[in-house]
Please model this.
Amino acid sequence: MATSAINATGVNDAIKSAGLSMDDLLKLLLTELTYQDPMKPVENKDFLAQMAQFSSLDTTRQLNENIQSMLSLQSLNQSVGLLGKTVDALTDTTSVSGTVTALNLSTGQPLITVKTAAGETIANIGLGQIQNVR
Model:
């Protein structure tokens, strides 16, 4: 049974669609080596190139996860800093101006509550809806 070498495009597509781990990729390489055609073995340089690609892909995935965590923390820090500040925000229905009185983190995205000068409380305003902070 002849097999062909794994190319980088195939590996990238497999990782994206199946969410393969580094262990899965190493098992795939081991299977390839086990069932390769003895008359046409995979060269060492090809094997090392594939290993380097797998390592690079795994590192990129970990880096992406770390960046996502940092962005979440930054968003949290920004929203905590808004408590007690006066903001202008644009909601789906109206423009709101008032003091940030509360912060809701239960949805995964920080949402603020604003109390207007008229005493009205507007909840669940996203950070992206804020136009001005005073």
Notes: The chain has a mean pLDDT of 82. The first strand starts at residue 86 and ends at 90. Residues 39 and 71 are 52 Å apart (CA to CA). The chain has two domains: 8-77, 82-133.
